[in-house]
Predict the 3D structure of the following.
Amino acid sequence: MDTSNFEAVKVAIKQDKSGYILTLSIHPDEIPDEIMRDFVGSRYQVVMVRLGEDERPVVRDEIVKLAGMLCRDKQFAAFLIDRGLIFEDGEETIIGWLKDELGIQSRTELKTNKEAAAKLKNINLEFQQWKRNG
């Protein structure tokens, strides 16, 4: 199996009826000849790793991302209000509640605090069940 290895920069993403269209910018010195010669419509198996400023792969923490998404989710606010856990809607209110509930000072602590991360996952499971039950 022949593989191509090159660095690219995401410059655009859009959606059409068949899916997402990702546009990458590849420096002329980096683009593999075989990609230039392949016909339009060629299929590829793609593996991509985001590079950080230090040229090393970026490790994404999905649990921290989940915490941020929940704090901005209007349905999550309704879930907390429904359970009597908060009394007013608002991202700052939810952030404060979440930090207190998880025993953390910052959501980034979820990267290393496995107990708090597990508790957040359980809260999310309860929330997802609440949404399904309407």
